[in-house]
Specification:
NAD(P)-bd_dom_sf; Epimerase_deHydtase; single chain; NAD-dependent dehydratase; alpha/beta; 330 residues; Lipid_A_modif_metabolic_enz; Rossmann fold; UDP-galactose 4-epimerase, domain 1; 40% helix
């Protein structure tokens, strides 16, 4: 199988790339070459937004699979349709499980759950991109597959405030400072390690029954937000000092005091329960089982951050936001 990953060195795509190489996939990355290449991956250096660079890098290539890990809007998708029409047997768009209906009408999400998120521009852009691809499949036979990850981690902290690419929340935990959890912390959430995600994802690559279909890929482990923060603190060797604040208060305080908006992050995503029925992907990839519990996977993520000081980013704006939330509502 000859595959092209546009991007390929991010939080999810890095483990997927590493396992793809282990499985003997002839894998190419198309990116700007700013990150250390993954051993065994062939590199095509170009900026996806620059047509002349793209033309030179892709000249003479056809693909079994093209995956765009960094397509976020209809402009990106429309460009890819023109670029890879007739040149790939499958095009995979990385969408997002945040596209599913908010607020949810059921805590159990399937691929037939409506796509509607009035709170988050990111999700609406992904939904619009899916619609462009579905139209291209129906009218032009463009061989697309849609994949919707949900809060998948490897080199990010999958928490609500002070995490993701930041080390801020962990720094606060280690200093004995409070961290903020939305609501009462008891709503159920799903986190998935990227190596588990990779098992299912590689199974749908170049699979003829995946063409024209959409799938989410998650673990089956349901955790409360209190558990997620507690497991992170355990990995850091400290006790989490959790302060619970209603989502609406967090959103209002951010909006009224010049902090980045939290409406999409909360009302558009993490304030709701999110449990996934993975029957569809398991039918396509029967041996898919997520086996990395968050309590173990997060230890690896913490070690990844702490292995290089430049990864331990403490965002002072986030720090101030959390401290002010605690002072006003804690």
């Amino acid at each position: 199988m000859k595959a092209l990953f546009i991007g390929g060195t991010g939080n999810i795509s890095t483990p997927v790339s590493e396992i793809a190489v282990q499985r003997g996939i002839d894998l190419y990355h198309l990116n700007r070459g700013n990150r250390e290449p993954i051993p065994g991956v062939k590199s095509l250096v170009a900026d996806i937004t620059k047509p002349k660079e793209l033309e030179a890098a892709l000249k003479g290539h056809t693909w079994d699979v093209v995956v765009n890990w960094i397509a976020f809007n209809t402009t990106d998708v429309e460009r890819d349709i023109e670029l890879f029409k007739g040149k790939t047997k499958q095009y995979v768009f990385i969408s997002s499980a945040s596209c599913y209906q908010k607020p949810p009408v059921s805590p159990i999400i399937t691929e037939s759950t409506p796509l509607k998120n009035p709170y988050w521009d990111y999700s609406r852009e992904k939904i619009a991109s899916e619609e462009v691809l579905i139209k291209a499949f129906r009218e032009e036979d463009f061989p697309m597959t849609i994949v919707r990850p949900s809060h998948t981690y490897y080199s990010v902290f999958p928490i609500t405030l002070g995490g993701w690419t930041e080390y801020t929340a962990v720094h606060r935990m280690k200093k004995g400072l409070p961290v903020v959890v939305q609501g009462d912390g008891t709503s159920l959430w799903t986190v998935t390690h990227a190596r588990d995600f990779a098992k299912a994802f590689l199974g749908l690559m170049n699979h003829p029954l995946a063409i024209g279909e959409a799938y989410h890929i998650t673990s089956d482990e349901a955790l409360t937000w209190n558990q997620i923060y507690t497991f992170l603190a355990d990995a850091a060797g400290v006790e989490a000092n959790i302060v619970h604040i209603p989502s609406q208060k967090i959103i209002e305080y951010a909006d009224q005091n010049g902090f980045p908006s939290e409406e999409g992050n909360l009302w558009g995503d993490k304030s709701h329960c999110a449990l996934f029925d993975n029957s569809k992907i398991k039918k396509l990839v029967p041996d898919y089982v997520a086996t990395i519990p968050f309590s173990e996977g997060i230890k690896e993520t913490l070690a990844w951050f702490e292995s290089k000081p430049e990864r331990m980013i403490i965002n002072e704006t986030t720090n101030r936001f959390l401290s002010e939330l605690v002072k006003n509502y804690g």
